[in-house]
């Protein structure tokens, strides 16, 4: 271990050292301050006799007299099975008053890319009990499916509902949730933790907390610590890990902060040009591996600044993740919970995990038909606002009603309502049965007979 | 192994030391390296490429993770630029960005990709049965075939003299099983020919002459083949925001293109998508040969979390392999998904080099790099005198779906076909979600003759009519938004009905349906022709005072909408046309 007391400058989250000797790139660093406290960091740039270190806990109180110790190794964290049920800080220290983790292994937080050849194709449907997700944008084990939301929308409530209800049909394998908070408020964190405690989810979960008041640079390592832990459980203990990360927007802000402190050439809106690669190194850690039973599924949450989906954060995320669930302000205003706008939402892996033997044979057809009909109904809303409802044909009026019906009866549900996939699909058929049968082009006649006919004679409950 | 070059000049090894490390960019001193030379960095011998020489400093981009490299570590030159192995065994392989076979890497390092592993692109041990085509005393020209091996049951892999080797044969092996390392043929000037050759990826493989592309690349996708066709040897760009179906379109093209070889580059994209291709392609049937689709495919997978410099190299690795098969006289299609990730890799390296940035932080050489990549496409007369082609289809992922950003704009200046993906269409589950108003193909005029002579003399007329209807629909939609469809005169209402048929029956195509996912050109034409015929007859009827409702309810209209799913398409479309004639006759007779 090499130790230096040669700090020449401190700017933002970075310190610069001189007269160093052959320090490795990416080395893990400890900084002993004159007041006795210790901070941690990582080498960002190293050359002959000069080193740049980014300090995770922020550079407050660091002076030129601080000792900097270079470990000769990358940042590794201790992991153990006993971590289940515990709460940790953003640097991996226990926050719940419990003992330190006795490591079973020490792992590099950056992980390693999975060899694409050894990936196993994801195909197991996760039932979240939320119709708009299960029916229209199914979550599959090993997928990374983010929730794109806006400030003030109930994405946290939705994430909690998913964490609470997520199950795999006909499956008794062990399952755990890892919750990662990045820069959220203490209040939000308390909301999550108390809900976890109340529902017992914490017993099969691990929490990593970096609050808004914690150093922003720590946000760059907390998702990596959490995913390293998730991989450990998934691939050593064959467990199915659901990793919920909130809020990725805060993560990206921290990335920008480092970039500008390093005086890098900024990309779009000041975010660093390597943000895509950086986000990929987090999101791509979801997946399954050939020959192993466990899986890592990610549900990152991000708030779109100004509800703008073309903002670099949602934009780059959308290019990496396998779809997105969009939480809409319009639906929220209409009082629909969960306010998921299914039209721009997407699950790229859905078709792999649904259908006969997985969910139900009619799943794909119903969801396609619901999509098409809802899209048509929404288009008609635009026309109605110009020409009025009277000028619509009879069948158009039915589509217009369908759109409302879909939002009120299919999308909307209670935040403690755990709807099975069968119920979800049946509700879909029930509302479709109000449309003229010859307009249902996406479903075959056999499916109509088998699943929809019984609703057609039933009294009109939905009105 | 690295010194066994069949082309290029060999340098002696030369050692230097690392001076600085910043991400994938390493600076070395005291080393005498050439520009673009391949070097080995650090104790583990990580691969890197020289990208800048500045006085005594040599700047290297490293293709693997650089953590824990230290100043003072050794850097060794190899004397050659980044090259790939070209020989039998490429087909059916899956490589990373610098042509290391991923199955081999998983044997060496397990499920995760660690660094410092060396794995040749082509199996050195495997024996192939060689059939000579030349004999002692024959002259071998540059790039000429001296024999072939059966790479698989449908592909003859010609063993060609490298583009810089020629001479008279003084010795050639007989038919028999050999490894790629064995010398097959000795020439009078001392040169030897083996089953494989190495070629530097950044140098286009030479050819005799480039020709005008005038044969269409048949993809089986109606909107592409009829409205916006691509020529063999042409270039196409598919830009679209996320979720608009770029990857699905690319994969569909990889499945259905009528080429001998497909090179599919997953450049900085999702790992789960690559595994999709890997699990699906071996099960699918090659539409050209009937063998497994994987047998004609070379996959290059450099997912977004794999090292960024290797991502930059993956595009070159892919196009070099494509050119190699072109040189055998084959048609090759190359799909690059996505070129935006490639451009971003360039941007990332460029900003580490602290170069002056151009537009949106991209390096100023973005445009020239993109154009020199697309320029490697083409239909050519090879050095060996055969005709082969490389067709390049590049996906572009513009931030926010904004087509005015630099990668899209620079790509559009070079590529001749533009398939604009539209997220509004994909949200309506209209696939392929190619926007028919924004897309274009500059090849159509040179392909028109081919379509008219091979498929139907009415090809151009029918296509033009369909395009006109779609264009008019767009204009009418604006009016409909204001006054409602009922206010339009009957002929315009009918036009909207026809355009709806074109959109929903002809342009939409179900890639999960066994019959609909691929339509031959003949089928495509007869389907469109039936719709256009219905339009003509319908317009005539309306002029003669027939009510529009009666026309819309005709049996033949309902049948057209279902015929695309039928296995007995040909006979069915014939009977639909007959029904149509009868029905319209009856309608007019009524009046």
Explain what you see.
With 463 residues, chain A is an alpha/beta fold. Chain A is 33% helix and 23% strand. Chain A has three domains: 3-74, Thrombin, subunit H; 77-349, Rossmann fold, CATH 3.40.50.12240; 362-457, Bovine Mitochondrial F1-ATPase, ATP Synthase Beta Chain, Chain D, domain3. Chain A has helices at 131-134, 155-165, 186-199, 222-236, 248-261, 275-283, 312-320, 329-333, 350-353, 363-387, 394-411, 421-432, 445-456, and strands at 2-4, 7-11, 14-18, 28-32, 38-47, 50-55, 67-70, 76-79, 87-89, 105-108, 125-127, 139-140, 147-149, 167-168, 175-184, 205-211, 240-246, 287-288, 295-303, 323-327, 340-347. In chain B, the strands form five sheets. In chain B, strands 8, 18, 19, 20, 21, 22, 23, 24, 25 and 26 form a ten-stranded mixed β-sheet that branches. Chain B has a six-stranded antiparallel beta barrel with strand order 1-2-5-4-3-6. In chain B, a hairpin with a 5-residue loop joins strand 23 (378-381) and strand 24. The interface between A and B is large, with 78 and 69 residues.
Gyration radius from CA atoms of chain A, angstroms:
25 Å
CATH architecture annotation of the largest domain in chain A: 3-Layer(aba) Sandwich
What general outline of chain B do the C-alpha atoms trace? Answer: globular
* Major β-sheet profile of chain A: 9 strands, mixed
Q: Quick one: CATH class of the largest domain in chain B?
A: Alpha Beta
Helix % of chain A is 25-40%
- On the 0 to 100 scale, the average pLDDT of chain B is 91
DSSP strand content of chain A: 15-25%
Major β-sheet annotation of chain B: 10 strands, mixed
What's the number of structural domains of chain A?
A: 3
GO biological process, one term (chain B): proton motive force-driven plasma membrane ATP synthesis
Keywords (chain B): ATP synthesis, ATP-binding, Cell membrane, Hydrogen ion transport, Hydrolase, Ion transport, Membrane, Nucleotide-binding, Translocase, Transport
Organism (chain B): Candidatus Methanofastidiosum methylothiophilum
Catalytic activity (chain B): ATP + H2O + 4 H(+)(in) = ADP + phosphate + 5 H(+)(out)
């Amino acid at each position: 271990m090499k130790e230096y007391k040669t700090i020449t400058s401190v700017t933002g989250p970075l310190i610069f050292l001189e007269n160093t000797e052959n320090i490795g790139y990416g080395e893990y660093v400890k900084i002993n301050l004159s007041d006795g406290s210790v901070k941690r960091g990582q080498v960002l740039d190293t050359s002959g006799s000069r080193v740049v270190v980014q300090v995770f806990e922020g550079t407050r109180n660091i002076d030129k007299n601080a000792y900097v110790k270079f470990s000769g190794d990358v940042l590794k964290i201790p992991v153990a099975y006993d971590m289940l049920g515990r709460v940790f800080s953003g640097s991996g220290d226990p926050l719940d008053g419990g003992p330190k983790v006795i490591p079973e292994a020490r792992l590099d937080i950056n992980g390693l890319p999975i060899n694409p050849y050894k990936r196993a194709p994801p195909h197991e449907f996760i039932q979240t009990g939320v119709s708009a997700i299960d029916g229209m944008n199914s979550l599959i084990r090993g997928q990374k499916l983010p929730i794109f939301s806006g400030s003030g929308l109930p994405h946290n409530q939705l994430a909690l509902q998913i964490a609470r209800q997520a199950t795999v049909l006909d499956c008794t394998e062990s399952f755990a949730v890892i919750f990662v908070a990045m820069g959220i408020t203490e209040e939000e964190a308390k909301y999550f933790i108390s809900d976890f405690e109340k529902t017992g989810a914490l017993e099969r979960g691990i929490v990593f907390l970096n609050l808004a008041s914690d150093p922003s640079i720590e946000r760059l390592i907390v998702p990596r610590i959490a995913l390293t832990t998730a991989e450990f459980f998934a691939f050593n203990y064959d467990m199915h890990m659901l990793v919920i990360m909130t809020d990725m927007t805060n993560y990206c802000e921290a990335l920008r902060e480092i970039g500008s402190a390093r005086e890098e050439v900024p990309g779009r809106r000041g975010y660093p040009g390597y943000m895509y690669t950086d986000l990929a190194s987090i999101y791509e850690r979801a997946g399954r591996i050939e020959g192993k039973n466990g899986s890592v599924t990610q549900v990152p949450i991000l708030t779109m600044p100004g509800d703008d989906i073309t903002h670099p954060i949602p934009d780059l995320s959308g290019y990496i993740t396998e779809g997105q669930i969009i939480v809409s302000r319009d639906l929220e205003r209409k009082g629909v919970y969960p306010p998921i706008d299914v039209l721009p939402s997407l699950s790229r892996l859905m078709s792999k995990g649904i259908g006969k033997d997985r969910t139900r044979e009619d799943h794909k057809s119903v969801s396609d038909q619901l999509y098409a009909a809802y899209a048509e109904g929404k288009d008609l809303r635009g026309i109605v606002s110009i020409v009025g409802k009277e000028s619509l044909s009879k069948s158009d009026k039915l589509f217009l009603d369908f759109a409302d019906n879909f939002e009120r009866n299919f999308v909307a549900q209670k935040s403690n309502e755990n709807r099975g996939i069968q119920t979800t699909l049946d509700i879909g058929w029930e509302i479709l049965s109000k449309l003229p049968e010859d307009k249902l082009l996406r479903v075959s006649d056999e499916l109509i007979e088998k699943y929809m006919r019984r609703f057609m004679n039933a009294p009109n409950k939905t009105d | 192994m690295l010194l066994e070059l069949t082309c290029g000049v060999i340098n002696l090894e030369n050692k230097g030391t690392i001076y600085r490390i910043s991400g994938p960019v390493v600076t070395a001193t005291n080393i005498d390296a050439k520009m673009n030379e391949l070097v080995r960095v650090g104790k583990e011998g990580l691969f890197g490429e020289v990208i800048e020489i500045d006085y005594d400093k040599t700047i290297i981009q490293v293709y693997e993770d650089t953590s824990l490299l230290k100043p003072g570590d050794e850097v060794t030159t190899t004397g050659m630029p980044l090259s790939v192995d070209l020989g039998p065994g490429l087909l059916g392989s899956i490589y990373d960005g610098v042509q290391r076979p991923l199955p081999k890497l998983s044997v060496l390092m397990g499920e995760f990709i660690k660094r410092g592993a060396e794995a040749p692109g082509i199996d050195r041990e495997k024996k192939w049965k060689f059939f000579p085509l030349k004999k002692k005393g024959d002259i071998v020209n540059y790039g000429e075939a001296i024999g072939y091996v059966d790479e698989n049951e449908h592909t003859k892999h010609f063993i060609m003299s490298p583009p810089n080797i020629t001479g008279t044969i003084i010795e050639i092996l007989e038919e028999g099983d050999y490894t790629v390392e064995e010398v097959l043929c000795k020439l009078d000037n001392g040169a030897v020919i083996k089953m494989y050759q190495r070629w530097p990826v950044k140098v286009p493989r030479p050819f005799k002459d480039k020709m005008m592309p005038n044969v269409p690349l048949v993809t089986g996708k109606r909107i592409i083949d009829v409205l916006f066709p691509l020529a063999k040897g042409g270039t196409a760009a598919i830009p679209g925001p996320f979720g608009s179906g770029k990857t699905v379109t690319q994969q569909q093209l990889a499945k259905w293109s009528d080429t001998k070889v497909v090179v599919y580059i997953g450049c900085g994209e999702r790992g789960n998508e690559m595994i999709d291709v890997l699990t699906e392609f071996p099960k699918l049937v090659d539409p050209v040969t009937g063998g497994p689709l994987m047998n004609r495919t070379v996959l290059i997978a450099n997912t977004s979390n794999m090292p960024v410099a290797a991502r930059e190299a993956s595009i070159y690795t892919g196009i070099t392999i494509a050119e190699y098969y072109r040189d055998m006289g084959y048609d090759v299609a190359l799909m690059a998904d996505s070129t935006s990730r490639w451009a971003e890799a360039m941007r990332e390296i460029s900003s580490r080099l602290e170069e002056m940035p151009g537009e949106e932080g991209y390096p100023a050489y973005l445009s020239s790099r993109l154009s020199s990549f697309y320029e490697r496409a083409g239909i050519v007369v090879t050095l060996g005198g055969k005709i082969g082609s490389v067709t390049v289809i590049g996906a572009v992922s513009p931030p926010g779906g904004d087509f005015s950003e630099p990668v899209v704009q620079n790509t559009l200046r070079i590529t001749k076909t533009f398939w604009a993906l539209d997220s509004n269409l994909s949200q309506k589950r209209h696939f392929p979600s190619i926007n028919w108003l924004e897309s274009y193909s500059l090849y159509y005029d040179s392909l028109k003759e081919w379509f008219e002579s091979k498929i139907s003399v009415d090809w151009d007329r029918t296509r033009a009519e369909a395009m006109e209807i779609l264009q008019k629909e767009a204009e009418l939609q604006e009016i409909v938004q204001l006054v409602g469809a009922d206010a339009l005169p009957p002929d315009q209402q009918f036009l909207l009905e026809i355009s709806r048929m074109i959109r929903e029956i002809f342009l939409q195509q179900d890639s999960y349906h066994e019959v609909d996912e691929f339509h031959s050109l003949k089928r495509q034409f007869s389907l469109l022709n039936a719709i256009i015929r219905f339009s003509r007859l319908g317009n005539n009827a309306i002029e003669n005072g027939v009510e529009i409702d009666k026309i819309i309810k005709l049996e033949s209209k309902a049948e057209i909408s279902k015929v695309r799913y039928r296995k007995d398409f040909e006979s069915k479309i014939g009977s639909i046309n007959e029904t149509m004639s009868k029905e319209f006759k009856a309608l007019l007779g009524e009046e």
